[in-house]
Design a protein that fits this description.
mainly alpha
């Protein structure tokens, strides 16, 4: 028998929170807010220190999340208006296009939060593998 510890006992992975993600809070700890304003993302969680802005292009995948749900919603709306309610295309098309534009803009924040959640599901960090909020070095350009 080997004297090595069992990997499952040493592996303390943190599971992301779906509820926190839908509230636009940190998917890791569920406490810090992800956004400062409507579109501006915090650099890191104010509670646990997990970095939200990982690298350039990190949120590129959120475009796919946003587009998929917007296209699906628009297609369902189109089917409802044209097939079920039998509205003419001259009314259904502008409504569907308006829904697509409005939903895409509104859902952008949620798509980014969902993308962070998916990233955490795929690559769950080990507990304590990121710096605590107060232990981060201050940016020299801010002094």
């Amino acid at each position: 028998m080997s004297d090595l510890p069992h990997p499952a006992k040493e592996d303390h992975r943190i599971r992301p929170s779906w509820k926190a993600t839908l509230r636009l809070h940190c998917p890791l700890c569920g406490k810090g807010k992800v956004f400062r304003g409507w579109f501006e993302i915090q650099p890191a969680c104010s509670h646990c220190g997990w970095e939200f802005q990982r690298e350039d292009g990190y949120f590129l995948g959120s475009i796919y999340v946003n587009y998929t749900l917007a296209a699906l919603g628009t297609a369902l709306l189109w089917l409802l208006l044209r097939v079920i309610l039998d509205w003419p295309s001259t009314i259904a098309l502008p409504l569907a296009a308006g829904f697509l534009a409005g939903f895409s803009a509104w859902f952008l924040r949620y798509a980014r939060a969902v993308w962070m959640y998916i990233d955490l599901l795929v690559d769950q960090p080990l507990e304590g593998s990121w710096p605590a909020p107060d232990s981060k070095a201050q940016d020299p350009s801010e002094t």
